[in-house]
Specification:
Elements: H1 12-21, H2 23-32, H3 38-57, E1 65-67, E2 87-89, H4 96-103, E3 106-107, E4 116-117, E5 124-126, H5 129-140, H6 144-157, E6 160-162, E7 168-175, E8 180-185, E9 191-195
Antiparallel strand pairs: 1-2, 3-7, 4-7, 5-6, 7-8, 8-9
Length: 200
């Protein structure tokens, strides 16, 4: 009498590991396994399908959203009307060096063309990327009061500036997947993050 060697899918631990590591193989092994009940097989299949759907439907962290933010307030801070420009928002809050590695950011001292300019009025830039992203988050949420306060605070503290149309600039860094560029004005060393759409 010969004993049959147990199949790999008859080992419950192996089945669970395959369900976690590579669910198609795990589901095959689950349904071939004779030690699980049919009810348990259906429950585990449902859980695996739900987890796969949840992971597949999850929004990427660097999804770009184009919005029309509130008008940049005057020094008195009284204006609250929308303007025609767009700001690209990013929810990412990682440190700048890690973002360069993760988002395809590339650092360069200047671009091949020295004739880059700001495209229109009302573009803002911030030396701190997280502060710029906070401003764009307020714009996405259409919280005009928070946007105005944060912008005024940023301008007053020197973190943020307002660019003027046709101002000549140089690109210093690009965060391609988040839609941001780091630029500097001609003749200046200060660098500011802004939306790619601001550069013409």
């Amino acid at each position: 009498m010969t004993q049959t060697k147990p199949r790999w899918y008859d080992n419950k631990t192996v089945v669970v590991v395959w369900l976690i590591l590579f669910c198609p193989v795990g589901l095959y092994a689950l349904w071939k396994n004779r030690s699980f009940t049919v009810k348990t097989k259906w429950i585990l299949t449902g859980v695996v399908v739900l987890v796969c759907l949840a992971v597949g439907v999850q929004e990427p962290a660097d999804q770009q959203i184009a919005v029309a933010p509130p008008e940049i307030p005057s020094e008195e801070g009284t204006s609250q009307e929308p303007v025609d420009r767009q700001v690209v928002a990013s929810e990412s809050k990682e440190p700048e060096e890690k973002q360069r590695a993760d988002t395809g950011s590339s650092r360069s001292d200047s671009t091949a063309s020295n004739d880059l300019r700001i495209d229109g009025d009302d573009w803002i830039g911030c030396s701190d990327r997280e502060y710029y992203e906070k401003l764009t988050t307020y714009a996405v949420q259409k919280d005009n009061a928070a946007f105005s306060r944060a912008l005024m605070t940023g301008v007053a503290s020197g973190i943020c500036i307002k660019f003027t149309a046709e101002e000549q600039i140089f690109i210093v860094d690009r965060a391609i997947f988040s839609g941001l560029v780091k630029i500097r004005r001609k003749g200046e060393t200060a660098e500011y993050w802004t939306a790619m759409e601001a550069v013409n």
